[in-house]
Amino acid sequence: MELRRLEQAAREAQDKAYAPYSGYQVGAALETDDGRVFQGCNVENSSFSVTCCAERVALFAAVTEGARAFKRLVVSANGRTPYPCGACRQALSEFAPGLPITVVNDDGEKHEFTLGGLLPHPFLFGGESA
Ligand code: ZN
Question: What is the pLDDT of residue 127?
Answer without folding.
Answer: 74
